[in-house]
């Protein structure tokens, strides 16, 4: 459940950032012959793409950790899992 919560939180942050960074009337920064055209800043787009990739990799890493815990401890009791994994 915590993994799904982390994914929902990450999606919410990315959606909020896209909502704040978007502007109407801006074009993609492609070189053309048009003059006096306002171009969009590509940095927020790159930041969002990076955040999506990092979020996906963190989610995959958490799933691997949960799979290892589930294989080593065939129980749903968190107290028992903590007791079995203390050094």
Structure overview:
The protein is 67% helix and 0% strand. The protein has 87 residues and is mainly alpha-helical. The protein has one domain (2-84). Helix 1 (2-21) packs antiparallel against helix 2. Belongs to the CPA3 antiporters (TC 2.A.63) subunit C family. The chain crosses the membrane at residues 12-31, 43-66. Pfam families: Oxidored_q2.
Distance between the termini: 26 Å
The helical percent reads 55-70%
Strand tally: 0
Strand content: under 5%
Largest sheet: none
Radius of gyration: 21 Å
Count the domains: 1
Mean pLDDT: 83
Count the DSSP helices: 3
Question: What attributes characterize this protein structure?
Answer:
single chain; 87 residues; membrane; transmembrane; NUOK/Mnh_C1-like; Putative monovalent cation/H+ antiporter subunit C
What order do the helices and strands come in, and which of them pair?
Elements: H1 2-21, H2 42-72, H3 78-84
Question: What's the gist of this structure?
Answer:
With 87 residues, this protein is mainly α. It has helices at residues 2-21, 42-72, 78-84.
